[in-house]
Amino acid sequence: MRRLAAVLLLLSLLLSGCLGGGGSDDAPSPQERADKGTPVLGQSGDEEPAGPALGFPVFATKNTTRVGGADPVADAAAVAQAAFPSRSEDTRPQAVVLVDQDDWRAGIAAAQLAAAPLRAPVLFTEGDELPPATADALDKLKPTGARRAGGAQVIRIGDVAKPDGLKTTDIPAGNPAATARAIDKLQGEAARKPSEAVVVASSDRPDFAMPAAGWAAKSGDPVLWTGRDALPPETAAAIKAHGKPRIYLLGPENDRGP
Q1: Does this model's pTM top 0.85?
Q2: Strand locations in the chain, DSSP E?
Q3: What is the DSSP string of 107-129?
């Protein structure tokens, strides 16, 4: 379930089309990316980069990009570098988001930060450790700093690794509803206004919640969490902060549990 949730989150973000930092004209050649040590096809995130580069533009057609890492950590690193070739300051992200690969709820909620104005790609940690693929991606991406997020180059969600030498904005660890509310607050402050819609999903049903990641990344709308029988106070407070938003509920018509 952990791998499936993380992979579908990454696919949602990539397909949303909102992570782009540069077009194909800015993309390095396959050999350049191989020489730089970009994660490779079938390689896991804890392996040292080697061999032909993973993802764009080695496995690409006019309308598709293939990412084929061996785990979500490698996939995330490849997606971020495909979206942001980082050959110049204009093709670098302002910031990146670090999320524990085991926390699918935080990962889905963090997709909101991939929308304008921050457009921050998501990278995965292994708890408080930076896997080689993530560390390598951070080194290549060299985030420029998001002025609307206090100049942060890295946005840390929960108890995750803290990269050396990069300015961070931290969202403390909390229950899923509290974390989603804090992410939404950061996004609202960066956008200088709350979104006009919110998505509410079950914190127990990743199969229904995961598609919301792509929508959040495109629209900037938050993904907030609810229990089966009660709405957490943090979610109620987050909705109230939006005034009278449109509310979209994700879940089965009759939820009898997984």
Answers
A1: no
A2: 96-100, 122-125, 154-157, 168-171, 197-202, 223-226, 246-250
A3: HHHHGGGGSTTT-PPEEEEBTTB
